[in-house]
UniProtKB/TrEMBL annotation:
Pathway(s) served: Cofactor biosynthesis; coenzyme A biosynthesis; CoA from (R)-pantothenate: step 5/5
Cellular location(s): Cytoplasm
Gene: coaE
Keyword Transmembrane helix appears in the UniProt entry: no
Name recorded for this polypeptide: Dephospho-CoA kinase
Length: 200
C-alpha cells in the first residue's frame, strides 16, 4: 500500500485536492478532521485535566484553549503530547481499514507535514501550491480572516518555495479545478508505475 502525504500552505487548495484523490478511489486520512473529532470526544477529559476550564458541554472550547497555548511553547508541547498520540492511533486504524479494503494507494492530508517531519512516514509527498496573489485572495475571503492573521499563520509554516523544492510532486491549483484534477490523475498513474517497477 503506497502512502501519499498531501500538504500545502494555507489557502493553496489542499482540501479540494484531497477530495480529488478520494473521487479516484484513494482513501483519505484528514489530520485536521481527526483533531476536530477528538476535540469533541476522546481528548476532552485529557485536555480538561491538563488545561482546566478549556472544555464545556460541546467539547473543547478552541478560543479558550488558544489563549492558554498560543505564544506559550511549553503549553503547546503539553497539548501536542496529548493530541499527537491520539491522531497517530486513528491513523493506524485508518491504515488497517484501507488494507482490509485492498486499497493500493492512501492519502494522508497533513497540514504541517514538513514542519512535523511526517515525510518520514509516507512514500511520496505531494505539495499543493498557487501564486501568492491567489493564495492571499482565497484566505482573505474566509470569514473572520484578516491580513494580520494570515501573515501570522504564514509565519508558522515553511515557505511555499521550500515545500515545492522538497516535494516529489507539485499540484498547481491556480489554474482551475479541471487542471488540478488532470494533475492528480497524472500523479496517480506515475506513482503506480514507479512502485510497480521497483516492486515496493
Amino acid at each position: 500500500m503506497i502512502k501519499i502525504g498531501l500538504t500545502g500552505s494555507i489557502g493553496m487548495g489542499k482540501s479540494t485536492t484531497g477530495q480529488m484523490f478520494v473521487q479516484r478511489g484513494c482513501p483519505l486520512h484528514d489530520a485536521d478532521a481527526v483533531v476536530h473529532e477528538l476535540y469533541h470526544g476522546e481528548a476532552v477529559p485529557l485536555i480538561e485535566a491538563e488545561f482546566p476550564g478549556t472544555t464545556g458541554p460541546l467539547g473543547v472550547d478552541r478560543a479558550v484553549l488558544s489563549q492558554k497555548v498560543i505564544g506559550n511553547p511549553e503549553a503547546m508541547r503539553r497539548l501536542e503530547s496529548i493530541i499527537h498520540p491520539l491522531v497517530r492511533a486513528e491513523e493506524r486504524k485508518f491504515f488497517e481499514k484501507a488494507q482490509s479494503d485492498k486499497a493500493d494507494i492512501v492519502v494522508l492530508d497533513i497540514p504541517l507535514l514538513y514542519e512535523t517531519h511526517a515525510q518520514d512516514r509516507v512514500d511520496v509527498v505531494v505539495v499543493v501550491s498557487a501564486d501568492e496573489s491567489i493564495q492571499r485572495r482565497r484566505v482573505l475571503e474566509r470569514p473572520g480572516m484578516t491580513a494580520e492573521k494570515f501573515e501570522a499563520i504564514k509565519a508558522k509554516q515553511m515557505p511555499d518555495a521550500e515545500k515545492r523544492s522538497r516535494a516529489d510532486y507539485v499540484i498547481d491549483t491556480g489554474k482551475g479545478l479541471e487542471a488540478a484534477a488532470r494533475q492528480v490523475e497524472a500523479i496517480l498513474d506515475d506513482v503506480r508505475s514507479r512502485f510497480a517497477q521497483t516492486g515496493e
